Amino acid sequence: MNPVSTLGEVTNSVMIMATNPPRTDLFSRLDDGDRDAFTELVDQYGGLIWSMVRNVLRSSADRDDAVQDILMSLWKNAGRFDPSIASEATFIAMITRRRLIDLQRRRGRRPDHDALPVEPALISTDRLPERLEQSEEVRVVMQAMGQLRPAQQRVLTLAIQHGHTYEQIAEVTGMPVGTVKTHARRGLMKVRDLLSTTSTDASSRQHEEIHDA
Amino acid sequence: MRDEFGHESRDSRLIDQLLGQLDDDGAVMDTDLSDINDISSLELTTARMQATLAVIDDDMTPMPDDIRNRMYALNPTTAMTTSSSPMRFPFAGFVAAAACIAMVVSVFVMQSRTDTVADLRETILVSAEDACQARWLDQNDPTVTREPGGDVIWSAVERTGVLQICHVPINESAQERYHVWMETAGGDPVLLATFDVTDPSEFKLVKLSLPDEADPTGFVVTLDAPTSTAMAAGTMIVRTGSVNAIGIAAS
Predict the structure, then answer these.
(1) 3-state SS class at A68
(2) Which of B9, B53, B207 has the highest number of chain A CBs within 10 A, making it the mutation to test binding with A?
(3) Strand (E) or helix (H) holding B14
(4) Using CA atoms, how far apart are residues A91 and A48, in angstroms rounded to an integer?
(5) Which of A24, A66, A67, A83 is 20 to 30 Å from A104 by CA-CA measure?
(6) Is residue B199 a contact partner of residue B58, using CB atoms and an 8 Å limit?
(7) Chain B contact for A104 (CB, 8 A cutoff)
(8) Does the beta carbon of B111 lie under 8 angstroms from any beta carbon of chain A?
(9) CB of A38 within 8 A of CB of B77?
(10) How far is B30 from chain A (nearest CA, A)?
(11) Alpha helices in B19-128 (DSSP H)
């Protein structure tokens, strides 16, 4: 299958299809043409997809188009999902990010925010909602992010969750653009290194929490 | 983070790309980033952070019901196993109208795994023996200051077609959307699709699925309320002119 975006070529290794034993997960069923699987995809992960789209796009028409585009991409690439490498939620977040970035590039403009958001709250496992206390994946990622410097946390949250440019982040935080870049780059590499030292992505249970959210 | 020559490191550019900070030119220039072994782990990290941030977001809201219902109608596995039934207007009752809207959206956006709408248009032009074409001709909207470019290409045998159009105004989708109607010999206009225009200078391509009961004699584009289910003459934007057979069978 073709890559789903300009970023597609760079991460094909993440999505190599498992060969055996036979899988019965959501994406396997989707790849097999199971009609109910698509409905389940919308039901279980609609909240995750919608929250990502909503944070980046303001126009209702753009949001509508983006959600359609993302769901079609997930369907087309269902066969690439490998549960031994990423959880369903992580796979969906990856595809969704790619589509949103591609969408913004095609339109030649940055996220159409009405106003820049206030600085996000710092990450702490103390913030973990009660309903998610049992989610190991959420806890692991939050712990890793919690080890970043506060400035690194803010920059990465604004870049990843809200899709802001370095310049917009500089405006929100008052940091020089160069400092924003440094925090983003070093922060992301640090989280990557921290996560690589923990157990593999254990978020196969995460979709239940997302569904409930 | 610069290398010994003062250039930004590949890791830095890679992260910029993953965070959506590189424009088209930057992305093209950085195709060599694919050689970096650990790009997968960085993108995976970004996705895990994204999913976690979404889950813990206190403001996280479910997908709105209207969008969720439209996504159900998108179901591509359904598209592969069932055929569309015609929708004729005016409908009686809300249920029929709601079903129509879902059908219109599904007809509009469904794609095969390999074909884009542009590919489908090319396939019809090249391969369909009975391919027909009708260009946009008449218009009565004063805001359309230029002759609307484009046409409709279709195959009655394959029951599919592609509309393309440009030089029509940007619409405010919350208030009104473009509606595509198929005219038939003696029948009521059939609503085939709805779409929005965000850039009048670009060709908008819309896939059309033709109902089985009748062949088209022309197509009309109107600008109506998003939920409109009946063609109103006063809202007509453009109408196709004569139908020309352009397929192999006609040559």
Answers:
(1) helix
(2) B53
(3) helix B10-18
(4) 11
(5) A83
(6) no
(7) yes
(8) yes
(9) yes
(10) 10
(11) 24-29, 39-56, 65-74, 76-81, 94-109, 117-127
Tokens 């030292």, located at residue: A197
> What pLDDT does residue B147 have?
64
How many Cα atoms are found within 13 Å in the side-chain-facing hemisphere of B127?
Answer: 10
Paired tokens of B134: 């009708």
Longest Cα–Cα distance of chain B, Å, equals 77
pLDDT digits (tens, 9 = 90+) for A27-78: 999 888 888 888 899 988 998 899 889 888 877 777 887 888 898 888 888 8
Whether the upstream peptide bond of residue B148 has omega within 30° of 0, thus cis, is no
**Measured between CB atoms, does B198 come within 8 Å of chain A?**
yes
Question: Which of A129, A29, A121 is closest to A83 using CA atoms?
Answer: A29
Mutate to test the interface with A, among B9, B11, B63 (most CBs of A within 10 A): B63
CB A148 within 8 A of CB A113: no
Residue B184 token pair = 């038939």
A50 within 8 A of A41, measured Cβ to Cβ: no
The residue type found at A141 is V
Q: What is the pTM of this model?
A: 0.53
Please tell me the total number of residues recorded for chain B in this structure.
Answer: 251
User: DSSP alpha helices (H): ranges in chain A?
Assistant: 26-31, 35-56, 60-76, 88-107, 136-146, 150-160, 166-173, 177-196, 206-212
| For residues B12-31, average pLDDT | 58
- On whether any CB of chain B is under 8 Å from the CB of A58, the answer is no
Please list the residues that pair with B165 across neighbouring strands: B150, B204
> From CA B184, how far away is CA A164, in angstroms rounded?
50
Neighboring chain B residues of A64 at a CB cutoff of 8 Å: 67, 70, 173
Note whether B56 contacts A59, CB cutoff 8 Å.
no
In the block, tokens 């959506």 appear at B20
Read off the pLDDT of residues B22-72 as tens digits, 9 standing for 90 and up.
554 444 333 333 333 334 678 888 888 988 888 777 666 788 888 888 778
